[in-house]
């Protein structure tokens, strides 16, 4: 156990793991708060030894997470987990449910998220693709609506992170709060969960191919399908 209280060996990836797998596991811990803001990471050599990976793999993973704004390197201090709150607290503020409806949410998403997908297709690293793949692996039919919402939110968050633009990440993080109730409604049915994962996998295929135009088009279709499924549920349509 490290002096800061975090057991870094918990992040130990599978044997012969490549740097992207390590970056994915680190980023997951940062995103869910398992690794708290202000935590000082061990030195590269020490962390590599604890994880059983090469120092080069650790260095590459650290470099990527620093570019994404998760980590900051301070001379004389070392590598520290950066607080995310400063990127999100005052950027857009909050909107309560009386100031938005499904159409407004769909319009907002169509303005922002196709561009996010387009940029991600040109900038995504191997670790970004690896993380998106993991979030597309689940069987949507076997998931509860709440679990499916979690996968949905994490996928779109990971896609934003793949742009390596902290402002876009902040906007997506804030809008996730506005989307929560609509996402839960859309994931109530088997059809809704299948449509969500199919959309994610189509977007992932375009990201893998580094096809920005295809990524944008796939996101447009994904949001349109989200709106259709959610609108049907709101009108009391048949369950899937």
Commentary on this structure:
The chain is mainly α. Strands 1-2 form a two-stranded antiparallel sheet. 63% of the residues lie in helices and 3% in strands. The chain folds into 2 domains: 8-83, Arc Repressor Mutant, subunit A; 87-234, Four Helix Bundle (Hemerythrin (Met), subunit A) (Up-down Bundle), CATH 1.20.120. 37% of the residues are buried. The radius of gyration is 19 Å and the shape is elongated.
* Widest beta sheet: strand line-up: 1-2
Number of domain modules: 2
The CATH homologous superfamily of the largest domain corresponds to GntR ligand-binding domain-like
Q: Uncertain spans, ≥5 residues at pLDDT below 50?
A: 89-99
CATH architecture of the largest domain: Up-down Bundle
N-C termini distance = 48 Å
How many helices? The count is 10
Dominant shape: elongated
- Look at the structure and give the mean pLDDT: 83
Coarse structural class: mainly alpha
- Which fold does the CATH topology of the largest domain refer to? Four Helix Bundle (Hemerythrin (Met), subunit A)
How many strand units? Answer: 2
Query: What is the percent of helical residues?
Result: 55-70%
**CATH class assignment of the largest domain:** Mainly Alpha
Radius of gyration: 19 Å
Describe the main β-sheet briefly: 2 strands, antiparallel
SSE arrangement, N to C = HHHEEHHHHHHH
Q: Indicate the proportion of strand residues.
A: under 5%
How are the elements arranged and paired?
Layout: H1 19-31, H2 44-51, H3 55-67, E1 71-74, E2 78-81, H4 85-88, H5 102-123, H6 126-136, H7 145-161, H8 166-186, H9 190-208, H10 212-234
Helix pairs in contact: 1-3, 1-6, 2-3, 5-8, 5-9, 5-10, 6-7, 6-9, 7-8, 7-9, 8-10, 9-10
